[in-house]
Amino acid sequence: MIPLPPQYRGPGVSAILEEVRPSAVINCAALSSTARCRSDPRAALEANALWPSVLARACAARGTRLVHVSTDLVYSGGNAPYTLQSPAVPLSIYGWTKLFGDMLVLRRSPGALVLRTSVLVGAVGAAAPTFTEELLAGLVPGVYVDAIRSFTPIDGFAEDLLELSEGGAEGLRIVCSRQAYTRAAFAEMFLRGRGIETLPPQTYRPAGTPADLSMIPSEEVRAFRFGPGD
Ligand SMILES: NC(=O)c1ccc[n+]([C@@H]2O[C@H](COP(=O)([O-])OP(=O)(O)OC[C@H]3O[C@@H](n4cnc5c(N)ncnc54)[C@H](OP(=O)(O)O)[C@@H]3O)[C@@H](O)[C@H]2O)c1
Fold first, then answer.
1. Which amino acids bring their CB within 6 angstroms of ligand 1?
2. Which tens digit of pLDDT belongs to each residue from 165-183?
3. Is 181 part of the annotated catalytic residue set?
4. CATH 3.40.50.720 matches 6-203
């Protein structure tokens, strides 16, 4: 058993909920770098599983709606396409800690909404750039020809999140594009669609990177997809 570190104990989050009285809480916080999760699994467990659990308990205690964001990396990549009925068997510490987070959130706060999504793309301007921001900035050293994801526009994801939350959805949902691509194919389509002909070099995925994480979005999710003109 791993004891909860001091910063997560005590009345902290409950006191904040009491003071702010939000109608809903959206938890996007995570240790999201797979490399950092690998080098510091304890921090990964705290941020991705234990903290969401504390938050879920506090939200449940005062009847506040919790929306928790999760990932396609809870799946192995060996038996796509994934639906909510698929067994989740992650290949990474990041994936395992996110899976524990999903399970703990739903256990502690049965009315919570947990959304699994894929690589989020679009212009955000946050500290950590999205894949398309990295592509446009020339920061991607290589794109995998053998790793498939359901690249998801971040604005569509945000709209679906709000719609599902406001509509009272509870439990797990998959929110992603209806079409999946290899990183290489997606990068080519995205950059050529902007008149950029210089593409990152194509490479093979390193050991431990899931092969095919295509997901089938839940029924209520809007039919967004990426095409050549996007
Ligand atoms: N981006 C994607 O393509 C993608 C795909 C699938 C799922 N997701 C999920 O979407 C959510 C958001 O991902 P993201 O890409 O926006 O991640 P991100 O850019 O790494 O942002 C995560 C945020 O969590 C904060 N955080 C991490 N540990 C914390 C801690 N111990 N205490 C307080 N704050 C902490 C970080 O703050 P600092 O910057 O100060 O550390 C950062 O602001 C995550 O749940 C992730 O699993 C993302």
1. 28-32, 47, 69, 71, 98, 117-120, 126-128
2. 999 999 999 999 999 999 9
3. no
4. yes
186 CA to centre of ligand 1 in angstroms = 23
Span 29-59, pLDDT tens digits: 999 999 999 999 999 999 999 999 999 999 9
Phi-psi region of 101 (alpha: psi -120 to 50; beta: other; left: phi over 0): alpha
Which atom, in ligand 1's list, is nearest to the CA of 98? Answer: 47
Question: One of 94, 144, 181, 204 is an active-site residue; which one?
Answer: 94
| 147, 186 Cβ separation under 8 angstroms | no
Q: CA–CA distance from 98 to each of 73, 101, 124, 145 (Å)?
A: 8, 5, 23, 26
Query: CA-based Rg of the chain, rounded to a whole angstrom?
Result: 18
CA of 27 to the centre of ligand 1 (A): 9
Is 157 buried (19+), middle (13-18) or exposed (0-12) by CB count in 10 A? Answer: buried
Please tell me the distance between residue 59's alpha carbon and the centre of ligand 1 in angstroms: 20
Q: Give the domain ranges of the chain.
A: 6-203
Query: How many angstroms separate the CA atoms of 53 and 58, rounded?
Result: 9
